[in-house]
Amino acid sequence: MNIEIKKSTKPVKYKDAINALETRLKLVSENKEKELIWILEHEPVFTGGTSYSKEDIIDKSINVHETNRGGKITYHGPGQLVFYFVIDLRNKKKDLRKFISIIENTIMETLREFKIKSQADRKNIGIWFNNKGKLEKIAAIGVRISKWIAYHGFSINIDNNLNPYKKIIPCGISDKGVTNIKKISKQKLNKIDEILIKKFILNLKNLIV
Q1: pTM value?
Q2: Pair type for strands 3-7 and 35-40
Q3: How many folded domains does the chain comprise?
Q4: Catalytic: 171?
């Protein structure tokens, strides 16, 4: 697979990132550019996916950037690792559920490397940590498919401020919490981005026809 790996060292504005992804999407669809994996952090922003409801906003003073990714409302900010991609599925198995499973497995396998046990949930998309019987979201997934090219991606809470989540009902799920790796484990997450990239590319091979 011929995938460009890009890493941004400074926080990126959400709108700028989405514009860049959509530009790459068009070029990939025209076979003019490589597929992409892009690791970054966002400047603080609340985003609402295609199925979000204004009822999920608790603090009515916040601004929500509406986006065309799947999913509901969430928060991005410093201390959260965002893993974007533009992946061409036209020459792979056209199986969206399988593709989502690849993302879920990539996150869970990576967290396992740091002795953190997590789980997926068929009813509530994302990756969850069982904190003494209460499920808390540690990673959010939001994907869009355009003519069998997948883009947007997922985010993992590393050491981000969790207070902004109190202003919303994260992902529209009111009976579960939100956590980050810092709350679960004090260990240093050496090269977590490299591990995610390696496992994602490896797992993508399951889609090769």
Answers
A1: 0.94
A2: parallel
A3: 1
A4: yes
Consecutive H or E run containing 26: helix 14-29
Residue 42's CATH number: 3.30.930.10
Handedness of CA 77, 83, 86, 91 (dihedral sign): negative
> Helix, strand, coil proportions of the chain in percent (round to 5)?
30, 35, 35
**For 85-109, what is each residue's pLDDT tens digit?**
999 999 999 999 999 999 999 999 9
Quote the domain boundaries for residue 45: 3-207
The closest alpha carbon to 162, from 134, 140, 185, 183, belongs to 183
Determine which one of 171, 178, 184, 196 is catalytic.
171
pLDDT in tens, 67-88: 988 888 999 999 999 999 999 9
